[in-house]
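Lab channel / #folding
Pinned by the channel admin:
"Please post every new chain as: sequence first, then the structure tokens as a reply. Keep commentary short and put observations after the output so the thread stays searchable."

First post following the new format, from NK:
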Amino acid sequence: MSCRVRSNHPSSTADFKEESTDDLARPDAQIEPLRRLLRTLASVGLFTLDGDRVTLEPIGATLSRNASDSLYGAAVMWMETHYVPFSDLLHTLRTGEPAATDYLGKPFFDWVNENPDRSGQFCDAMASITSGLCTGMFDHYQLPDGELIADIGGPAARSTTSDQGLNGQVEIIGGDFFDSVPTADIYVLSYILHDWHDAAAMRVLRSVPPRVGRELEC
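Reply from TO:
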């Protein structure tokens, strides 16, 4: 998926409905490798193949940069930052140290934050997960009483809050969630705890003030 979304062709941005394989190969792909890739992606529901015709399926449309539920950022980020360190998984099994730490030579988030492009890519990926995978998550959930919500570890997305109709309603506060978090009525931790071992995850949870608010992990 990442290979297709990283190029600039309509098939990579999923901005097409139906095309021939030859048309999708232009201008930057070899036809035979592309056909094999499309067959693989069709097997997981991104496309439907009928001879030389390729039809985009709804799940494939989520790879478009222009989709409201776009997962473009996540597809790019996971390929470039996650998959190669997975090759060192045996090191984790033998030592308990995260494979990314061994492969990258430092903890994953230190490696991400030392480079502005990687940091921006990570924020874009987290924003795409929020707008894509998490869309509608709270549609039928009755939030507890309270007016102030703290999204712990939420990405400082490049889109402005005014783009989301939240101008003047959101304040971005930097800090270390292992030590403390801003006071709020409700705390949301989305895609946070799975990044840490159990002891570190408990530190995050304990940083929430006792008997204050409610925690939502998603």
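NK: The first strand starts at residue 18 and ends at 20.
TO: also worth noting, The chain has three domains: 2-61, 72-131, 149-217.
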